[in-house]
């Protein structure tokens, strides 16, 4: 009889140790998963910003291709460039990206 009771104690002791091992494993893995999640969010944010900048450049090119916005052979070329830059800045402001007119080059 004494044998069976000592076996039961061994089983209980083993279970307690397994619970402790699981807690230690969780403590090691949880920060790594957190860092991985933050990295995924950051890469997604960078990809979104890149796409918005590409769309702003496309919008500026589309707006500058309109007949009213031709800069060559026009005396008010600076006004046209300012309108194009303002269009791009407004597009980026809607997406909460800040640029200045000096950052934009119109060719």
Q: How would you describe what is shown here?
A:
The protein is 76% helix and 0% strand. With 107 residues, it is mostly helical. The radius of gyration is 31 Å and the shape is rod-shaped. The mean pLDDT is 85.
Number of helices: 2
Number of DSSP strand runs: 0
Using only C-alpha atoms, the radius of gyration works out to 31 Å
On the 0 to 100 scale, the average pLDDT is: 85
Helix content: over 70%
Secondary-structure-based class equals mainly alpha
Search tags:
single chain; 107 residues; mainly alpha; 2 helices; 76% helix; 0% strand
In short:
The chain has two helices and no strands. It is mostly helical and 107 residues long. The model has no long low-confidence stretch (mean pLDDT 85).
List the helices and strands and how they pair.
Layout: H1 2-64, H2 77-94
């Amino acid at each position: 009889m004494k044998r069976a009771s000592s076996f039961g104690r061994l089983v209980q002791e083993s279970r307690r140790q397994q619970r402790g091992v699981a807690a230690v494993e969780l403590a090691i893995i949880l920060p790594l998963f957190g860092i991985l999640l933050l990295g995924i969010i950051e890469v997604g944010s960078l990809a979104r910003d890149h796409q918005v900048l590409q769309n702003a450049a496309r919008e500026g090119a589309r707006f500058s291709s309109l007949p009213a916005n031709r800069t060559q052979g026009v005396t008010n070329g600076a006004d046209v460039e300012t309108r194009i830059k303002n269009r791009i800045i407004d597009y980026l402001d809607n997406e909460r990206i800040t640029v200045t007119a000096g950052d934009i080059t119109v060719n």
